[in-house]
UniProtKB/TrEMBL annotation:
This is Cytochrome d ubiquinol oxidase subunit II. The lineage of its organism: Bacteria, Pseudomonadati, Bacteroidota, Sphingobacteriia, Sphingobacteriales. InterPro entries: Cyt-d_oxidase_su2 (IPR003317). It is found in: Cell membrane. It comes from the Bacteria. It comes from Pedobacter frigidisoli.
Amino acid sequence: MEYVVIAFLCLGILLYFLLGGADFGAGIIELFTSTKNRSRTRKTMYQAIGPVWEANHMWLIIAIVILFVGFPHIYTTMSVYLHIPLLIMLIGIIARGTAFVFRHYDAVKDDMQWLYNRIFRYSSFITALFLGIIAGSLISGHIDSEAKDFVSAYIYSWLNWFSIAVGFFTVALCGFLAAVYLIGETKDEYDKRRFIRKAEFMNIAAVIFGALVFLVAQFDNIPLIDWVFKNTVGLSAIILASLSLILLWYLLIKGKTKVLRILAGFQVTMILLAISYAHFPNFIRLKNGDAISLFETVGPPKTIYSLGLALLLGSILILPFLGYLFYKFQKKEE
């Protein structure tokens, strides 16, 4: 049953990045949109994420619950040594959600809309940035479980060049996902061209920050190149990600937008697979060279059995209705 629990954990993290990350990316796209076009971007964004934006946080909640119940040592280590970036990320999620509601559903349109818009844009950027910083910190080897002072234990664990580079790479990926998703949400040719340009911009930014991640990893003695290129799965995933990107831009040039979202999601999935496969099941790398493994820190068998059963039964009840929710609102917009 522990394999079922781990599978749900991986699925929850992946879907949160693909769906929740695209929501963050919508705010990032708006941040990098000219003032005259921001109202057009907001209108398209409301159509895309308005009905389902809150449902995407379900995947984050599932991942947190799985770690808390099934892998308490990993949950504790993250909560203690990364409590500052986790707090900033959660504040960002709350701030952007609040701003999204008030600027879209507020009955009174007044000067506060100016504030709501800025909170939404900047909190989207900050949330995606710190999501990446947390992910980078888990594999960077900077978490020092033997630290004797506050700065070494709770600041340098995440405030390092590798984690920051991963943070900006995450921002670019979220923006890329959102731009590609938004292309299919509008029938206006002008808006389509705008979102295509945004996708190109975010794609270039992702390549630049991705290269920066590898460069910083080399200086920081993080075996990222070995993880990605020196095993069959990682190398295959990178090749498939590259091919899917080429196909995505070919279809864009041809004006075919039906499968763009699938290709963008597939590409990001392959990138995550390439990075994570080689050091799986290790979830956290520590500064002393040790690693915290999912299998070695799994909870008691009865707990894992109950958790796995709850996840299986919950997925049967929730996933069909969640799929229907997306389908229904997509049909409504059409």
